[in-house]
Amino acid sequence: MQKISIILTGGTLAKTYEASTGNMVNADNDAARLFGDLCLDGMDVRFVDLLQKDSLDFTEEDFALILRTVAEAHRAGEKVLLICGTDRLPDLAQKLCEDGAGGRGVTVLTGAMVPLSVKGTDAPQNLTQALTVLRLSDAGVRTAFHNQVFEGGAVEKDRVALTMVVPAG
């Protein structure tokens, strides 16, 4: 049975509608709830609700906390699925590579362009794909998004096509 740590940092995927303000917010995130409809057979899953932030609001301290949490999971023999906002996901992928996460174990990042709570969301597809990539990988940092897999820090957000792409150049 594979040991997997699913770390939630917030992001669009986890946003919910706040009726009192009329805004989508990261509040009361619950990683286990996000995966409630998915079959997790063959996995020993530990859910970590680490942050409740839009990635645009990440500080250097937040990045450091995420890096420490991933390193701790790898030391415990866990593969890591990291759910992150798409705006800073490329920055986080790069920081994970610079921190040596790929040499310690497997880390797969994913997110969504549309919140899980909204009809037409891409979240279930991205979560399922990320879990598959995680289970089939032996080492490295990858991003799984919209039927694509990006190696290491070679990923950026295309704000026009609303997806992740390989950086130009």
From TrEMBL:
Cited InterPro entries: Asp/glu_Ase-like_sf, Asparaginase/glutaminase-like, L-asparaginase_N, L-asparaginase_N_sf
Keywords: Hydrolase
Protein name: L-asparaginase 1
Active site residues of this protein: 12 (o-isoaspartyl threonine intermediate)
Enzyme class, broadest EC rank: hydrolase
KW Zinc-finger (keyword) present: no
Gene label: ansA
SUPFAM superfamilies: Glutaminase/Asparaginase (SSF53774)
Pfam families: Asparaginase
